[in-house]
Structure formats: structure tokens, C-alpha cells
Amino acid sequence: MFRPLKRWLPRATSLLLCLLFWQLAASHHWNLGLVTFANVPTPWSVVEAALGLGDSGKLAQHLGSSLSRVFAGYLAALVIGIGLGLAIGRSKWAEDLLLPPLEVLRPIPAVAWIPLAILMFPSSELSMVFITFTGALFPILLNTVHGVEGVDPRLIASAKSLGAGRWAMLREVILPGAAPSIITGLAIGMGTSWFCLVTAEMISGQFGIGYYTWESYTIQNYPDIVVGMLLIGVLGMGSSLLIKRLGGLFTPWHRPRGKA
Amino acid sequence: MSLFEQPEGRIDIRGLSISLGEGRAAFEAVQGLDCQIEPGQFVCILGPSGCGKSTLLGALAGHLQPRAGSLKVDGADVSTPSPQRGMVFQQHTLFPWRTVRDNVAFGLKMRGIGKAERRRAADEILALVGLEGFAERWPDQLSGGMQQRVEIARVLVNRPRLLLMDEPFGALDALTRLNMQELLLKIWTQIRTTVVFVTHDIDEALFLADRLLVMSSRPGRIIEDLRLDFQRPRTTELVTSHEFSRLKRHCLELLHHQEGRQLPRLNPLGLPLEHKLPRFAL
To answer: Quick check: B87 contacting A, CB < 8 Å?
Structure first.
């Protein structure tokens, strides 16, 4: 029990030092030349703003809308990303057919999708889900392709020799072989999905953390912006961690190097 | 199905040529090879590195297609991999995501055999290779010798006509290799299948085989066909006997004639893998 404690101490200290720097910089309105803290809210005012948000009773609605959008987009990305990734990784034909358009779409940032998303989807809710979907899709897709192509050809040959057919190969060899890479993709995709949330909720709406953050900026309520940013950061980190933990449960044989 | 089933596994190879590589880089790894192997025989194939002995094994397994000639097992052409022709590689190919027992039972699962029956058969064959008590382990938790034993068990659970082995003990330390050779002979007395065992270790080949085929350097052809009538069961004392030494000298001379060119090692799946560059940054 001593060892973990020893590691938590520097971790907590590091966080506290960051907070201290923030407090000093913001309260003394430091001007560091390139960057100025003149208009940055202090940590304390952020805490007050957070408490205010909690008291207003809107927090649950903001959280609820954001979570449902992120998870809907993420779930669609998971199904489509893994499905397409398996097809592309397994078949040259699917690769030639599917990968070129996907490679063109991949570098397009979420914010550039906004006008088209509004035009393409009947409801703003769906267009917001679509934006979070684009964020999560590519990390999941590319890591799945990478994982599938990384499966040892000797394992595939052995499975064939042992009588595995097409579906058994996919279920028993390809999927588990690619699983560690797929899970990495899922964890990264979870992060990027939250990453796109503010962009998505710029579209419209009444509720959502991203909407709240953007709204606070337009009405110049600076502490609230930071509250929104921190909420997104914490939620994104939490859900990525959750995915990694779940992934660990699904791959009990897989132990990353350097850890027992 | 009984453990002591009537052996099958007659191999009939006529005019076999196999080419590897594509376009200009293509070459004949095996050329105009003829060979008949009796059911239940233990045959070792000895040859210099890159001579195409592993290529021949890959073709027997069904992983590589002949360019010319025919390759028949019990009268049927070999075209695709089959549980009837089990393959053991130099480095184990156990599924890291399956326990030892589930790895061994994999072939039975593919045949749709029920869980209880799979478990019973797997445990039976694990006991035969001396791995009782390791059924619940992950493959990564075993030593190299144990991993190869699981690999052999996983192939034998299908009662194959052929057991194809590509330098299966080549990566093991000397002592473990001796133990594995004795174990393999012991298993073979109980599950009589045709064994084709590729090696470049003369001692190993002489110790194990009923019949020893020596292959020439590329393109691979058979340049010597020896019958080894050493009494069975064989023990490690055999390797110090006079007759053993005489045959070993003979094999060394044959292999010496083949030296001069250093060829890259081939494997039963064809050419050594080139490391592909990732097509996109992640």
C-alpha cells in the first residue's frame, strides 16, 4: 500500500502546483508578453461559477444532453468503425473500394462539417450526434484496420490447418488478435468524441456542456467558460478510462509490456 | 474415435515444383521432386538453410500451391489446409487469447464437438504430452518447451494423417530439445501417424527418423534417401554408437558439398515476411 501512496503524492502535488500558478497568474493579472492572464478568471471564481451552475438545477440537463449525444455518436462510430475496419483489414477488395474516400474525409475537421451537417440531417439533434460520430469514427476505424493487419499470418495459417472456416477465423482469431489495437482506438475515439462536442453543440440547442461553454463566451461570462472546459475534460478522461478498464476485462490475456 | 486408430497417411509426390516470389523475383524453391512415404513412417528431411525443405512442408500442409507436378495424400490431391494434415511451426502459434486447454480443443470446436467432450479429449492429450495441471494457463505463461508440447497436442487432438513439423525444437535449448525428442517418439508410439520432420540438425534427424531424406541446396531436390534401422525405443545412448557416427559423417559430407551459398531461410508460408510500413499515421 506504500508504493501507490508514494506515487499519488507527486501526482497531487503536480495538480496543486498548476492550480497555484493559475491562482497567482490570474489574481495578479500577469502579462507574460506572448500570453496575458489579464482577463482569465481565478480558480476561486471558477469554483463559485461551478457552484452557481449546480444550484441553478440545469447541470443535470446539460450533462444529460451532452452524454446522450456523445454516446449516440460514439456507439454509431463503434459499430461502423469496427465493421468497416474488419472488412478493410481482411479484404484487398474492400480496401480499394472503401479506403480512398475515407482517407479524403479523414482530415476534415469537425467544425467544417457543421454547415453540411445542418443541411443533411432533419433535426439539429441528429446533426450534433453526427459531429461527435465523425470525431470518434477515424481513430476506431484506423486502429481496427491496423490491428487486423497486424494479426500474425502464422496464427491464421494454423487456424486454417485446424479447420477454421471464414466466420470462425473472424471470431476466434482476427477479432481477438486485433482486440488490443481496437480497444486503443476505442479509448482514443472516446476522447476525440468529447473533443468534438463543443463544435457539435455550437449548432444550436438549449442544453449541453458544449452549448453552455459557447454560450458563456458569447455573453462574456468567463468563469463559466472554464467550468465548461473542465467538465468536458473530466468527462472525457473519465469515459476514456472507463473504456480502457472495460477493454482490459475483455482482453485478460493481454498485459501491456512493463506492467504485471 | 479410438486413440489407436488404424494409421493412414500415405504421401505420393510426383514431379513437384513450387515457385515463390512474384514477377522477376520469382524462383523455384523446389524442383522436380519425387517421393513416396509409407503410412506411419517417421521421415526426417535434412538440408541446408533455404533449400526448400520448409517449402515442401508448406505444400504438404496446403499453405503453398505447387507450380507443377502432383502432391497426394492417401490418393487425394492436397489443395487447401486441413486438420488431417497438422502443422507445427518452429515458433509456437498458440492463440494468446485462449487458455492451454481451449487452444488444444480448438480443432474439436471447429468440428462442432460439445464442450464437455472437448474438455475431456483435450485433458487426455495434455496428459499424454505431460502437461496435466497446466490446462488453465495462458500460453504466454509457459516455457518454450511447454508451448511446443501444447502445439503438438493441439495438432494431435485432430488425429491427423500427417504430422508436419518445421524445425519444431530449433528454438529450444539443447537439454530441452533432447527431452522433447524423446517425448515426441513416446507420443508417436501411442498415436501412430505419418511424421514429416524438417530439421538442419543431423543428430536430431538420425535420432528420430525411420527414414532420412537429404535435400540439395536450391532448387531443392532429394540427393540421399537413407533407411535408419536403429532399434526402438531409442534412448540418448544411441547418439554415441558407432553406426550413428558413421551415418553422421556421411550426412556431414553430403551437406558440405552443398555449402558455398548462403540463402535466406524460407518458411512453410513462403518467403520471410517483410516489415510493411504503416500506410497511415495513427
So the answer is: yes
